[in-house]
Amino acid sequence: MKKTTNNKARKKRIILTGLAVSAAGILGYFGWQYYKKRKEGKDSDLDAELKKTAPAVSYEPTYTPKVTKKKNSTPKTDIPLQTEPAAVSEFPLKKGSRGDKVRQLQQALISKYGKTVLPRYGADGDFGSETLNALKKLNLPVSISQSTFNVLVQNTTADKSALPKQLYDAAQKKDLNQVLNLLHSMNTKEEYAAVSEKFKSYRINGVRQTLVNGLLNSFTDETQKQKIRMEFLRMGLQYDGSKWSLSGFDGLPIVTTRPTTVWINATQGVDVPARMVLGNEVSRKQQYTLFENDGKYFLVNSTTVTYL
Questions:
Q1: 3 state DSSP class of 284
Q2: Partner residues linked to 29 by β-bridges
Q3: What's the pLDDT tens digit per position in 259-281?
Q4: DSSP string, 89-144
């Protein structure tokens, strides 16, 4: 009986050993195949499974604002980056200086003495021979200290009451350089709104228009229009490709007529009550209205809003 028990135990050990050897062999084989595929640059079945992800499921309104992302561009290594040394815009401003302070100085000269003072380049932000000669002709210092700079530009930056008429005259004459120089003296949406309100007292092609529409309608060349658009964007105005938007300007405010959902993006919405002012309408397409509030865009069902 004892011998029989020992024989059974021996057979059991042999079977287990055989299974272990077989398993090691199988794992070794598949491990070798996996190693070969990785070495050959091929994905194994295991890699393919690990790479599988469940598809995202989301609800998206019928119409969503188109968002264009600016692609990051990497400069070529053989082309050096053009950077402006800090010293070029520091005081004193002199020949060779460049930057916004130079541009402000040139704009002040044009505003005080007329565009003929810098007839060729205007306010280009570059202190060159034309600016140097203009200062000499006006018996002004050719090296501008900060104190001299403040005296020259303070009146032009503080008082913008003349801008509406100046912009209107420049638009009538199709003088793009003068239009751009005058626009560049405006830096905020609030400044734009104040100038635009007075500009509407004049008629462009027989029609009273906002500043942005009046100037763009005064020029037919697309390159000229684009330069004007860039100035308005710099001030903070919003453009969706067809309409301009600014609080209190060019876009009627809308208010909800009943509880509704305002879409922040394609998958997130916020419930809002009736009689809530949402912002200024930008455009309508299908059943949705795109509106702007504080420089951001949102969607709402057109049937749930009306003009204020």
A1: strand
A2: none
A3: 999 998 878 889 999 888 888 78
A4: GSSSB-TT-BSHHHHHHHHHHHHHH-GGGSTTT-S-SB--HHHHHHHHHTT--SSB
pLDDT tens track for 40-88: 544 444 444 434 443 443 444 444 444 444 445 444 444 344 444 444 6
What distance lies between CA 208 and its chain's CA centroid? Answer: 30
Closest CA relative to residue 213, chosen from 183, 186, 250: 250
- CA–CA separation, 166 and 114 (whole Å): 11
Altogether, the residues listed in the chain come to a count of 308
- Residue-wise pLDDT for 130-149, tens only, equals 999 999 988 889 999 887 88
Q: How far apart are CA 158 and CA 147, in angstroms?
A: 16
Q: In terms of C-beta density within 10 A (0-12 exposed, 13-18 middle, 19 or more buried), how is residue 46 classed? A: exposed
Determine the Cα–Cα distance for residues 157 and 59; give it in Å rounded to an integer.
50
Token pair for residue 153? Answer: 């530009």
Q: With CA atoms as reference, report the closest residue to 181 among 105, 127, 233, 245.
A: 105
